[in-house]
Design goal:
mainly alpha; 84% helix; globular
Length: 107
């Protein structure tokens, strides 16, 4: 909470977005899925405005994991594909593999 407040006060948008995405992951672990999704969306919105592709791809990946934990395969696949597309554009094959493993497409 202090990190988020500090970032808001100092306009460190990328750090703020990463912190919010981290909070979303915590909500997912606690099975508070609605709050997790709200935090993911907030982080994605901030990162999209910054055009921070790497962080944005990770936020999509994390949101895909949240939908996966909720049992929503369709929305999970959409977010995973958005992450794969961004990681592919950045030529980050290991990150693509990480997403594919989460999707169950890679051993």
């Amino acid at each position: 909470a202090q990190t988020i407040q500090f970032c808001e006060e100092n306009q460190f948008t990328a750090i703020l977005a990463k912190a919010i995405n981290g909070v979303a992951q915590l909500h997912r672990q606690q099975q508070n899925f609605e709050q997790a999704l709200a935090s993911h969306l907030q982080a994605i919105d901030l990162l999209d405005k910054l055009r921070a592709r790497c962080e944005l791809a990770d936020a999509y990946f994390q949101m895909g994991l949240t939908y996966q934990a909720m049992g929503n395969g369709e929305k999970s696949a959409i977010r995973f594909q958005e992450a794969i597309d961004l990681f592919t554009q950045m030529r980050a094959p290991r990150q693509v593999e990480r997403v594919q493993q989460a999707m169950g497409q890679f051993p």
